[in-house]
Amino acid sequence: MFRKINKGIHNNFFLILFLCSLASGYAQSNVQNAFRDDSRRIIVIDPGHGGKDHGCNGHGSIEKLIVLRISQRLKEKLEQRNPQFEVLLTRNKDEFIPLYKRAEIANKAKADLFLSIHCNAIQREDIHGSETFVMGLHTEKENLEVAKRENASILLEKNYEENYGGFDPNSSEGHIFLTMYQTAYREQSIRLAELVEEQLSDIGGRHSRGVKEAGFVVLRATTMPSVLIENGFLTNLKESKFLNSNTGIELMSQGICQAILNYENELLAEERKAKEDDRGQFVQVGEGPEYCIQLFALSEQKSPKELGLPTDLDLRVLREGDLYKYIYGEFKERAQAERVLQELKSMGLEQAFIKSRI
Fold first, then answer.
1. Cα 202 to Cα 136, 208, 232, 236, 254, distances in angstroms
2. Would you give per-residue pLDDT tens digits along the chain (358 residues)?
3. Sign of torsion over alpha carbons 104, 180, 118, 352
4. Alpha helices in the chain (DSSP H)
């Protein structure tokens, strides 16, 4: 269980003043694009386990060693394919890194993407294939068991109860609470996971077991799109030999690399279209705001107070599928929305992002 679940940011008097001032309007045409320089994209690759934490094993293969080789080769490929990528590894050798520190590395680097690399195991030796997880609800018992196995790494840490607020990786109830950690990056994470599964199938030759959801400690605190990739089952003889081979390392790293490149290309296409819209090359018909800012996407509805936001904040809550999306602001010009977005991020709402007309 968690002793305390802390979501959102602290109430902030200056945040209230700033948000109230939005209603009075902004200087428009001279507002500069506040996005970080597009020429630099930071990607954090997290080789799972390490050191005293061996991860799973099967047929002579050890997870911690395989995922390190995949991650190192992935870093090389990404930097070769796009010199604008800055790729960081949470570990570059066989050493033990606590799960919470892996997320800290990504957050301190202000990473754009976080990918945790793993191998799978199950009692049935006939099961094989890749699966990519995002932070979310356990829709199947099997997903819960994967999360429990990966989260059990915290038992090897000193003072793990203090580091994780009393979370028990052996408790199903604790994992249910863990799945409540949803962020505005859920949609982007799902899209990245879809692309990973496509490429591990096309390039890596893996049977795709699909995109899944479960509660992973290593994903809960990241402030960027994040996925956990299970490359295959070491308990399957054929797959274990493949993943432990030079060919397997090459193909799996190539598949994940191509997925990241495809994700980035989609992102650039969306940003390019938004800029073209701003220049008036594409005009939308109709009235109403063109842009807004999404602050959160949660699996259950919460009040501003529960989220740590000012109680008088003018938020709209939209229900889309199983998510409640918290929307702020209405902006005719993207430059206005960008200015507000940067102010919100500077006040602690790191997960906020701009959406086109809703």
1. 26, 10, 15, 20, 10
2. 223 323 333 334 344 434 444 433 332 222 222 233 446 899 999 999 999 999 999 999 999 999 999 999 999 999 999 999 999 999 999 999 988 889 889 988 989 999 999 999 999 999 999 999 998 754 444 444 545 555 555 555 666 555 545 445 455 444 344 444 445 578 889 899 999 999 999 999 999 999 998 777 778 778 789 999 999 999 999 999 999 999 999 999 999 999 999 999 998 887 777 666 555 443 344 455 678 888 888 877 887 777 777 666 678 888 877 788 888 888 888 888 888 888 877 777 777 888 875 5
3. negative
4. 13-21, 63-81, 99-108, 141-151, 160-163, 172-178, 186-202, 217-220, 237-243, 246-278, 334-346
Q: Maximum distance among all alpha carbons in the chain?
A: 67
List the beta bridge partners of residue 43. 87, 113
Tokens of 341: 């977005």
Asked if 204 and 119 count as a contact pair (C-beta separation under 8 A), the reply is no
Query: 354 with 338: CB under 8 angstroms?
Result: yes
Tokens of 198: 């496509």
326 to 23, 274, 292, 315: CA distances (angstroms): 18, 22, 10, 6
Q: Tokens 């496509």 belong to which residue?
A: 198
The structure's pTM equals 0.63
Q: Give the integer Cα–Cα distance in Å for 210 and 237.
A: 21
> Rounded to an integer, what distance in angstroms lies between the CA atom of residue 318 and that of residue 271?
24
Strands 113-120 and 226-233: parallel
Burial 80-89 (b: 16+ CB within 10 A, else e): eeeeebebbb
